[in-house]
Q: What sequence folds into this?
């Protein structure tokens, strides 16, 4: 056990205590009733940073604030900014075996909403920074902890714009991504974008009895079902909106070959995400579809009876919750235009409500920081990472790249089996402690130390 | 004011008290957690009947019991059985302005779930029976109060079979139907049948993140939306299942002419049911479609996110709640067969769960009892009823016709604006008191009195 590992193992009780305290604040940015918890999470984050010797501030925005902490050892040293987010997904899925907002420890595995996305990785970086400060690594550190990542980062640009002058940094490290599997770390160099919509249709004022009105009354559920089937092929996922694919920059043959070589394992993927069957069976096809092609998915259809059995009323209104994952060079604006135009044509009574949008991101996988990331991962976990794209979206990445103008790199710690956005979300000490070692090594490699 | 009316007006406080007590027992047969309330409703019904001098019994079945009360004045007199139901729809719609299970009186209007369907009409008949007994009308009376009408009467046949010998009756009167409008009573001679289904599709074990899996993962919501659009035209309601209309006995030209002559008012219909627009605008077309043609409606689609905004997870399973209203000579069995066969062909992974089914009913609108109904309605309300069909279903009717073998007639009291199966359900004293007068007159007309 080297010196790092000894130091890290002593941090375990404190890491678990802090992760527990974080998880038990249900900081669900999507649910307005959680606003008080969001502010508790911000206060708690600030307290942690101050405890580690950072100058910390809760920076207000029109939405939820950003927690900003800065530790300048010497202005002559390089500065690294580490991005994580402290907001989480809701926890209402019936498959949860434990309370999503109670921290449950089973051996070295930690259950609870936010353990892997993204409170656990945030704390790994946080504890690594404490060790870096104690070990006098010649590097200035800055934390950027967002509270609106899960709702598309609507206020992050406001934060960056407001504090731009004080945020000066040489590079940004984002820790909010997922490995291919436990043996195969991944460093993404691209992220899909997003555009979400709610399609609503109101045909009446109240439930109407299908015996009394059925046949004459319009049914918003059957009309929305028909509209959905005209927007996307339900089985293959092929989007039917005219022009939807026109701006897609197809992944090159070399990229696709890299995706395949990265070791994407179809069976492990199915197992990790609990999928019975997939739409396609070819690995090249599958990786391209999750990393390099856009989607249109329906995430929920409200309206009518949700209880047991069948209540034979025709509801007055219904809503389809839809999102499109976007890839370069699609833009949220372009896709919004196409959606509005197509819906207007197919069913003019349906209202299109525009929700969060994020530009897709395509970065570089070469250079000093990318090299340091590879070495740090190899050092901490003994495995060589694959360079992949990631199918998800992190709104803040695009903003930081655009406004700070410095390299943005990714070092994530989550595994497919950690259940990102899924019930029974978890994280584990192996990834947490390995993560601390990885971050520390990364700090050293990019520091001013010769 | 005649003698009847004086007697009736004195009953008002007691009617309101008993309707309040009934409404405030949330006897929702669809919700398993309401079982204790169902049994309270049965006990309360029995108490009422005993108070009026009936010999009453709570007759157990495999499901909820039936309350049976009998008052034999003289075995030589004719016996009339009056059918109502004491179970109600759930009350969860957001449009309720008052608590659905609190009785709220505004002037002579009574709000609360079950006021018009069917506790108010049941109590009108009940108070009329008290007056009939006091007035020594030579008629034996029997009440049949069901507790499973809203879930398709699954145990009513068991009850009739069990008590058949003791239930001897000369005719049955059902009070659970709706007028055309406040000025135009209606006596239905036909009811649509019903077959409900739940279509379920499970493609995974848990929510999966659309960033991580979107493109590769199957989406049960888009697949069900596509299936629905292949079963029914979402806009016109035309059912696309091959063979669905083959057994439909089309309404005759004379019947359609009667429907039009009945005075169906499209604008009033839209207003009463809170409908913004209808699928069709021709009255002959509309009345045929709600009374004499079958339907396929979707009543709810579960699966995925139901909260505010868009949560970008792909759910592991989804369910479409569907019902078909049936008309003569369609049968639930035939429609179930067609549904299973069609779904199997369109999406073999979708499971068809068979829910309640009811045979459609087509009775007569001639004869002694029908004539008495017309006279009683004219006497009590000063308006001539139209003979129509009704688009809804009452499972018990088909069972009573089949097993008791006597005429089954309808005298309802509900109005379209009472909000059957809808939020802000209500009943009013004009219909309640007029109803008592109507029942009393009907009792006299069919009694042994010369």
A:
């Amino acid at each position: 056990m080297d010196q790092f590992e000894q130091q890290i193992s002593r941090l375990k009780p404190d890491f678990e205590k802090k992760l527990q305290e974080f998880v038990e604040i249900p900081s669900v940015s999507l649910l307005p009733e959680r606003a008080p918890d969001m502010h508790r999470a911000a206060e708690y984050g600030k307290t942690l940073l101050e405890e580690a010797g950072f100058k910390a501030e809760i920076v207000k925005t029109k939405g939820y604030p950003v927690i900003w902490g800065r530790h300048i050892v010497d202005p002559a040293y390089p500065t690294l900014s580490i991005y994580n987010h402290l907001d989480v997904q809701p926890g209402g899925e019936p498959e949860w075996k434990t309370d999503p907002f109670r921290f449950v420890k089973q051996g070295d595995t930690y259950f609870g909403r936010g353990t892997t996305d993204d409170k656990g990785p945030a704390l790994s970086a946080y504890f690594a920074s404490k060790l870096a400060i104690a070990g006098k690594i010649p590097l200035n550190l800055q934390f950027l902890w967002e509270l609106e990542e899960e709702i598309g980062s609507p206020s992050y640009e406001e934060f960056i714009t407001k504090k731009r002058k004080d945020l000066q940094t040489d590079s940004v490290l984002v820790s909010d991504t997922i490995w291919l599997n436990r043996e195969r770390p991944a460093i993404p160099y691209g992220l899909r974008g997003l555009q979400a919509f709610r399609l609503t249709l109101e045909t009446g004022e109240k439930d109407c009895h299908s015996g009394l009105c059925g046949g004459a009354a319009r049914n918003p559920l059957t009309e929305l079902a028909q509209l959905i089937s005209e927007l996307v092929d339900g089985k293959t996922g092929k989007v039917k909106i005219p022009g939807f694919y026109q701006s897609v920059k197809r992944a090159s043959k070399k990229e696709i070959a890299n995706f395949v070589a990265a070791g994407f394992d179809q069976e492990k993927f199915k197992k990790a995400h609990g999928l019975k069957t997939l739409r396609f069976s070819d690995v090249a096809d599958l990786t391209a579809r999750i990393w390099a092609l856009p989607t249109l998915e329906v995430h929920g259809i409200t309206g009518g009876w949700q209880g047991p059995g069948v209540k034979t009323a025709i509801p007055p209104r219904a809503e389809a919750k839809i999102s499109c994952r976007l890839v370069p060079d699609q833009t949220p604006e372009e896709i919004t235009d196409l959606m509005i135009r197509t819906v207007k044509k197919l069913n003019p009574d349906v209202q299109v409500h525009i929700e969060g949008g994020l530009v897709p991101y395509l970065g570089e996988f070469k250079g000093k920081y990318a090299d340091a990331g590879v070495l740090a991962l190899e050092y901490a976990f003994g495995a060589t990472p694959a360079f992949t794209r990631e199918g998800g979206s992190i709104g803040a990445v695009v903003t930081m790249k655009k406004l700070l103008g410095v390299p943005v790199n990714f070092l994530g710690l989550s595994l497919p089996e950690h259940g990102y956005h899924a019930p029974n979300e978890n994280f584990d000490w192996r990834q947490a402690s390995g993560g601390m070692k990885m971050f520390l090594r990364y700090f050293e490699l990019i520091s001013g130390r010769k």
In short: Chain A touches chain B through 100 residues (CB under 8 Å).
